[in-house]
Write a structure and sequence with these properties.
Elements (H helix, E strand, L loop, with lengths): L2 E3 L3 H11 L5 H19 L5 E7 L4 E7 L3 E7 L6 H5 L6 E2 L1 E6 L6 E7 L8 E5 L2 E2 L3 H12 L4 E9 L1 H10 L4 E7 L2 E2 L5 E2 L5 H6 L3
Parallel strand pairs: 1-11, 4-5, 4-6, 4-8, 8-10, 9-10, 10-11
Antiparallel strand pairs: 2-3, 6-7, 12-13
């Protein structure tokens, strides 16, 4: 099973802050960025490096650079809130976009937009969505990336539940999924319990 749930004190602390229904839009947005950066900082411990030669003001020495390009794929719109926190750590990253909405009747994702950078096939790719609920949107994003022949895909969500995790791992057992918290379950409207409500609305102040 390729599920990883962080047990980092700062991630737990900050998740508690944004779970609070009294957390305002500005603070919510800033903390989502911070948590996203913390998570990818921990994930990046396994990044491969290439050796390069550099000239310091004193002498030549061996240095290192990331072996692969990094591409983040925020699922519109809530995934956008996670991008800047990661871009602060990896300014050279490229940003793809996948737009989906959830059909209110079937609760299934409907794709309306997909745009990818060139050479994404060789990159280390992160799908970003604050909430892994039913797993439908993320699963569709994986399908779209597989059509682009992307091999190195990682899912990053702040909060998830086993219903969504199992759906993804059933289709792609090799997939790595990183969560800040594994929550209890989904309610009848496919919202995570206890969760944090609608991440998109709270990020952008639309409700």
């Amino acid at each position: 099973m390729a599920l990883h749930v962080f047990n980092h004190p700062l991630i737990k602390h900050k998740l508690t802050m944004i779970r609070d229904k009294h957390c305002g839009t500005k603070q919510f947005r800033e903390i989502v960025e911070e948590i996203s950066g913390l998570m990818v900082y921990e994930i990046s411990r396994d990044f491969e490096l290439d050796e390069i030669m550099v000239e310091t003001p004193i002498a030549a020495t061996t240095g290192y650079q990331l072996k692969k390009d990094v591409v983040v794929v925020p699922i519109l719109r809530a995934g956008l809130g996670m991008v800047e926190g990661i871009a602060h750590l990896i300014p050279s990253l490229k940003i793809a976009h996948i737009g989906m909405y959830r059909d209110k009747e079937t609760l299934l994702p409907k794709l309306y937009y997909a745009k990818f950078p060139e050479n994404i096939q060789q990159a280390k790719v992160f799908i970003l969505d604050p909430l892994l609920a039913t797993g439908g949107s993320i699963l569709e994003a994986i399908h779209q990336l597989k059509k682009q022949e992307v091999q190195d895909i990682t899912v990053v969500s702040l909060i998830g539940v086993m219903e969504g995790v199992n759906k993804i791992l059933h289709a792609y057992p090799e997939m790595n999924i990183y969560l800040g918290s594994l929550d209890e379950k989904l309610n009848d409207h496919a919202y995570i319990i206890p969760g944090l409500g609608d991440a998109g609305d709270r990020l952008f102040g639309t409700k």
